[in-house]
């Protein structure tokens, strides 16, 4: 939390700004008119008439206000940007598309905002006002689903996608699975193969190399590459990466990853069945705590 | 550096003193029946008074309560002994107005929903209405000092120094209220699964 922003609005705090945006419609409105003029000896009939008029005007203005829907972005689809451009999502935040990005707004309604990023980079700043999953970005290798956060998404020339999450969390959704990527972590996704392995941004170089080898490994080499990652994690590695591998479809990988994860961060309080779906949030919290 | 800090502090203090003196003049003029002066007081304090009401009442009631507070203040203005304390005095009236409205509601024998409007909207607007309702419910559950200060900051957009000026609290107290209140609010929201 940015105490300075809370105190005098200096700097920025996206979380507080999101709450401010959400609550802003409740604020006292100057449009509701100044207070009735108070005569020295109040003439209550006239005063009530003024109050009634002010109330009628106030409610008429409120009724005439449009429903809160995201601002509609109008540009031809798809478009390659020749300069950086901000896509204003109104109360839901904004997307800063970098120069050269090929971006396409494919759906924009009150229920869903969906972009397609074919190439280049966007920075998404999504506020609390947007419910999780309202904002999604399709790329050639995955769909990046916002769970309430700020992140940078880049699509390389080969169609691979890299997400770096600054705050909150996102999920890569592809091939019937979701890959969780929390704040201070990044993850790649690859065309035809989908999501790779998430890792913290400060992951040591040898582990990064092992993760990249795993993400690019041929199917027949995958298990060995994953076991190499797990071994690398034992020497002070990433619980986030182990969590991901503990959910691998290959039992030979997940069975090796679970004990390594438990050895790394222990079992969260209150969790008796490690793999129970309801324990998932406890695990995620423990993993995020382990990174601090 | 120390000299610069002292100079800055002195500047802020003298600005606050000038502001207080200006408000005291407005109060004195309003006590003599100057409606324009009272309108100026309304402009200065409407937001903080509205926040006090919103931290206790649903929005529609808070809007009505705001008018009621200032009508009551106008009627009782002569009883205000310290013109410089008009902010806290208005806030105290607003708290009484809110209490009276709660009692009236109880006498009517039914507890009306806090946010009637949100039930009439659909789609994303309804989602936001519900979300707003939940945040406000959590905010209202906070201790009084925190919820009023946070309502002034998060809803009405007043800064910490402006809140200190309106409430008569020290800047340090306001800052503590804001930070602790925000921590508590954040914890409550987090329990609901907010990121």
Written overview of the protein:
The complex is a heterodimer of chains A (292) and B (195). With 292 residues, chain A is α+β, with helices and mostly antiparallel strands. Chain A contains 8 helices and 14 strands. In chain A, strands 1, 2, 3, 4, 5, 6, 7, 8, 9, 10, 11, 12, 13 and 14 form a 14-stranded mixed sheet that branches. In chain A, strand 2 and strand 3 (93-97) form a beta hairpin. In chain A, helix 4 packs antiparallel against helix 5 (222-234), helix 5 (222-234) packs parallel to helix 7 and helix 6 (239-246) runs antiparallel to helix 7. The longest helix of chain A is centred in the N-terminal third of the chain and has 21 residues, at 44-64. The two termini of chain A are 15 Å apart. In chain A, 35% of the residues are buried. Mean pLDDT of chain A is 80; it is low at 39-43 and 57-76. By secondary structure, chain B is mainly alpha-helical. Chain B contains 8 helices and no strands. Chain B is globular, with a radius of gyration of 19 Å. Chains A and B meet through helix 1, helix 2 and helix 3 of A and helix 2, helix 3, helix 5, helix 6 and helix 8 of B.
What is the element layout, followed by pairings?
The complex is a heterodimer of chains A (292) and B (195).
Chain A: H1 3-8, H2 14-23, H3 44-64, E1 79-80, E2 85-88, E3 93-97, E4 102-108, E5 113-126, E6 135-138, E7 143-146, E8 150-155, E9 161-167, E10 169-174, E11 177-182, E12 185-190, E13 194-195, E14 199-200, H4 205-215, H5 222-234, H6 239-246, H7 251-265, H8 280-290
Parallel strand pairs in A: 5-6
Antiparallel strand pairs in A: 1-4, 2-3, 3-5, 4-5, 5-8, 6-7, 7-10, 8-9, 9-12, 10-11, 12-13, 12-14
Helix pairs in contact in A: 4-5, 5-6, 5-7, 6-7
Chain B: H1 2-31, H2 35-54, H3 59-76, H4 86-107, H5 123-140, H6 144-155, H7 160-167, H8 171-191
Helix pairs in contact in B: 1-2, 2-3, 2-4, 2-6, 3-4, 6-8, 7-8
